[in-house]
Amino acid sequence: TFDIHNPEGYFLYVKQSNPDGSYPGFMVMKFMPGQILRISGVSGDIDAPYTVINGNAMDIQYGEGARIVFEGESIWSTFELFTEFVLIKEPESNQLAGKSFSGTYYKGDKSILHQNFFYSFAADGNTVDAGFNPETAERTENYTPVGNIAARAVLDNGDTEFMVLVNGQLKVNYKVYSPDVPTWPDYHGAFTQQ
Question: The whole model's pTM is what?
Answer without folding.
Answer: 0.93
